[in-house]
Automatic annotation (TrEMBL):
Family matches, as SUPFAM superfamilies: EF-G C-terminal domain-like, P-loop containing nucleoside triphosphate hydrolases, Translation proteins
PANTHER family per UniProt: TRANSLATION FACTOR GUF1 HOMOLOG, CHLOROPLASTIC, TRANSLATION FACTOR GUF1-RELATED
Family as reported in the entry's similarity comment: Belongs to the TRAFAC class translation factor GTPase superfamily. Classic translation factor GTPase family. LepA subfamily.
The protein's name in its UniProt record: Elongation factor 4
GO molecular function, one term: GTP binding
EC number: 3.6.5.n1
Enzyme class: hydrolase
Keyword set, alphabetical order: Cell membrane, Elongation factor, GTP-binding, Hydrolase, Membrane, Nucleotide-binding, Protein biosynthesis
Binding-site positions, GTP: 33-38, 149-152
Compartments (UniProt record): Cell membrane
Reactions this protein catalyses: GTP + H2O = GDP + phosphate + H(+)
Tr-type G domain location: 21-202
Membrane-related topology note: Peripheral membrane protein
Amino acid sequence: MSPIPSAALNQRILPAATPPELLRNFCIIAHIDHGKSTLADRMLQLTGVVDARQMRAQYLDRMDIERERGITIKSQAVRMPWELDGTPFALNMIDTPGHVDFTYEVSRSLAACEGAVLLVDAAQGIEAQTLANLYLAMENDLTIVPVLNKIDLPAAQPEKYAEELAKLVGCEPEEVLRVSGKTGAGVTELLDRIVATIPAPGGDPGAPARAMIFDSVYDTYRGVVTYVRVKDGSLSPREKIVMMSTRATHELLEIGVISPEPVPTQGLGVGEVGYLITGVKDVRQSRVGDTVTNAAKPASESLGAYQDPRPMVFSGLYPIDGSDYPVLRDALDRLKLNDAALNYEPETSVALGFGFRVGFLGLLHLEIVRERLEREFDLDLISTAPNVVYEVTLEDRSVVTVTNPSEFPGGKIMEVREPVVRATILCPSEFIGSVMELCQARRGDLLGMDYLSEDRVEMRYTLPLAEIVFDFFDQLKSKTRGYASLDYEPVGEQAADLVKVDILLQGEQVDAFSSIVHKEKAYAYGVMMAGKLKDLIPRQQFEVPIQAAVGARVIARETIRAIRKDVLAKCYGGDITRKRKLLEKQKEGKKRMKTIGRVDVPQEAFIAALSSDSAAPKDAKRK
């Protein structure tokens, strides 16, 4: 959500709360690139909250990075007026992200709604994230409005996909609405359907005020701006409020709705979605999932927080300039306010200095967070190669949690457990063989397979998370000519034959280059890393062996040749014994230097070897 501009103060003040029976709260859910933001644009135009002069494509995508990549990263709430049969209604719409890495944004948005518009591309049909978001909506007992978008495309097959969608939702194909976000066809009927079918919000207007915080953002001038959905009672300007988890008390300086720019109101009532400004600058005092209540007449119990997201991928973030460490800490604190799925803790590295170990929901989440930190806070960062969390059981039955290969214990190990995910892959049936081959190569187990239609199949696999955090999605796309879609969820842990591969430089272990891999892939990793370092580390005055080892056994080796000074340059003629004497003297010096010399690995080599840039996901360039 975008920060509240101070210009909002000069706008008209809307009257107090709208009656709950005239409210409709809904969100738009879909797979990436199925046209959520474009449909939202048409709704904004039709309801008149954005005039033609201000209108631009993907109006609700406020961040530069969203507009550049064509993807939605942050959910955006907007209030729109709509009239049906002469009755004026207020629609609170939330446009949600489509990518699997931002599912936590979607789950929070669903908790603030009574209904969901399930959008499916009429040319592509149901995809993995369509199913994932539908199941999330069903878990929240939301009313589903099935909609086919992009019916204006030449490749659209509305009849075929309406049947698929009807079967999935449990309705008749005729009940599936056909719209075009681009041309605006069918959007009026969709808004009428939303008012007619989605129930009005429930709640007790006379009870003590209770409002759930579903998002927040930091504004440099106005402090923390909190976005809430009121469940019971009402909130008014200038009253004292209490955050129920932290017990912090604040005065409400301003309260209002987003329409789609912030508009102050005289209060928020049952079922309404809006923003609160208290002037607080401490970002830790406004937690997503907390309940806001009235200080004079507080509620007895909170609404219950959201389920905390579980990080799937861990990576180290380090400032290139060590003096930027405090700036990075403050930047992560502020970003956490706007991205509740972010988890981080301080970490130090011999090679890279002070930084943070950050937990992400996926590779795209990692890439977006890093880019936001660099753009919004003017930081230069190194991100280390992503890895997952392992549990190692030693022979004495003690269990060690390993978030970094350097923490992997030595000695006798009884068992290593790794996180496992349940992956859902949707693809055309002609690619079944290619997908099976890829999943088996990544140690996957087939759970089942269902044909959604004659030419589309859903395959379910259990896969180790470590096997899919690097380039699995890229490989899947290339093997299916871009037609496959992937969704995954954690399902626990399993024992695996994993080993730690150490990299030795002249017999000394370099922790930063260690990695935990499956036993069968240890050799390939060792050869790759040794070859990479041979090219990156400059030549020394003596020969430097680079070895990859599992325990005490060396599995791969490369040698950096010594820089050889020509000691015979000054000999022009004369006896051969004189030349031999000089060569022997040089040989002795090299031998002594080899025993006492130390290999200095330049910072650039560390950055190039540890950087995850080569593993960055390419699936997020378009929404």
